[in-house]
Amino acid sequence: xxxxxxxVGFVFSFLGSIPPGTLNLMVLQMGLEHxxxxxxxxxxxxxxxxxxxAWIAVEFEQLITSSPVxxxxxxxxxxxxxxxxxxxxxxxxxxxxxxxxxxxESGFRRGIILSILNPQAIPFWIALTAxxxxxxxxxxxxxxxxxxxxxxxxxxxxMLLSLLIFLAHRVASSFRDNRLIRMIPGLVLLCxxxxxxxxxxxxx
Length: 204
Known about the structure:
Shape: globular
Structural class: mainly alpha
Oligomer: single chain
Low-confidence stretches: none
Distance between the termini: 39 Å
Strand content: under 5%
Radius of gyration: 17 Å
Number of strands: 0
Number of domains: 1
Mean pLDDT: 77
């Protein structure tokens, strides 16, 4: 059962990390820029933060879902973060500052900061865990099973981000020194942030 919940956590974390988001677009950008070591450190930092976020989601599932205010604010917070990071990403492509260059070179610190500021994993794991438990696919009633499941989510996120890094690295030679290509992650993040604001203010 411990192995089963690990595999379930791994698979759904891997698949759940595929849609465009703040973190996978950042590693995609670093892969396109041939900064493989920094990108892998970034992915490791994301996986480390994924662990406590997934644990919070599982452990406090009922408390969090019973408060609509908390859920709505998480959506708004995600929209703000994606918009700000999108703007900063576009700005640094056009006019890189000494601080932004230092932060980008240190993939681990950058990954920790952006992961902590990006709590979107919490509502995702709340909804998914509730569904998996209802379907009877996981039993996380013991500490070992719970942490095996959460560890699977971290490893799954790391493997998906690593795959994105190496795929981006392989095609990067076709886009070398192309500023427009380097701006794509920032533009996508900006669009996702705007969509988040629209959903929050008009559909919530």
